[in-house]
Amino acid sequence: MATERHRSDTDPGDTDPAGRDLDAGAEPHPDEGGGAERFVPRSRSLRTLGAAAESCHGCELYRNATQTVFGSGPRTARVLLLGEQPGDQEDRLGEPFVGPAGHLLDRALAEAGLPERDVYRTNAVKHFRWRPPPGGGRRRIHQSPTQGQITACRPWLLAEVEAVRPAVIVALGASAGKSLFGPSFRVGDARGSVRTWSAEPEAASAAGIAVMTTIHPSAVLRADDREAAFDGFVADLRRAAEVLK
Asked: I want to staple 63 with a disulfide (CB 3.0 to 4.6 A). Which of 22, 25, 73, 190 is the partner?
């Protein structure tokens, strides 16, 4: 099967200096809200899921986003990389991890020995949350999604996990971890460790999937010592690779 490459929480009521609701954007759909579950088709074809996600208005983030950015990678991937949300370039191009953080991630995966054919990339939230700079301007400033927005988008992630059935999920940062384990998740407590996760932990038949937590590649770009941060990031990814052996 060909690779299908589409590619501190802030309250949703943020306003810019002019008092405008930054999550308002386009006119809201009359059926907006309530989460993504009702938009997720029964089919577990990644192509079908991606097409359906384009019409999702389970939360308000679709209003200001250029487009939905669904996951990318082969259905046979053994590793699912889970980030936070699309960034500015991802929002414009429609593919995950194609900006500076994505290029750094590519380099880290190569050093960790994780080939592209083994990797599916996606985000906890499928729309870019941003705000304009103070005083106006064209630059779009990243805003982390709220827990409510992460929860609203979670049905898409669960469908992707069911479709890909990875051997290991790599949670890249806090929002990714919160989408799996809930709002109490902290990267500092979980980084480098491998724990088991199941979408239905209460089910006796739930086998669970290994989850390895590390920082988001954008955190490496922001680090004072980028070389040391990159080396630590690669070491974490190597732990994920070891789970596959």
From this structure: 25
